[in-house]
Design a protein that fits this description.
Strand content: 25-35%
Radius of gyration: 13 Å
Low-confidence stretches: none
Number of domains: 1
Order of helices and strands: EEEEHHH
Mean pLDDT: 94
Helix content: 25-40%
Bound molecules: zinc ion
Distance between the termini: 14 Å
Number of strands: 4
Largest sheet: 4 strands, antiparallel
Structural class: alpha+beta
Strand order of the largest sheet: 1-2-3-4
Shape: globular
């Protein structure tokens, strides 16, 4: 399990993401933050296809769709870019170790 953290420039709250790469594709993520905009997604296990998420555009992204559904102010919020970057870093680590 890996842990990444960064701050969204709009909400100015620290967002922590735990990642667990299950296999070559599947990553499980768990978001922790006191950001009020993210509360519906906090501490929920979210399963994503890491490779798809890294390649997908914002419009195609399952993660972005999920965030958009729950986050009231997703425009201007950097949380999507942030988590996408974490997923990419985590995937890089997984392939280095594999
Ligand atoms: Zn934000």
């Amino acid at each position: 399990m890996c842990k990444y953290a960064s701050k969204c420039t709009l909400c100015n709250r620290t967002v922590e993401v735990h990642t667990e790469q299950q296999d070559m594709n599947t990553v499980e993520i768990k978001i922790s933050s006191d950001c009020p905009n993210l509360q519906p997604l906090i501490n929920r296990l979210i399963c994503l296809d890491a490779i798809y998420e890294v390649i997908a555009s914002k419009e195609q992204s399952f993660l972005y769709g999920l965030l958009k559904q729950h986050h009231k102010q997703i425009e201007g919020c950097t949380v999507y870019e942030m988590i996408k970057d974490f997923i990419g870093q985590n995937l890089g680590r997984y392939y280095e170790l594999a």
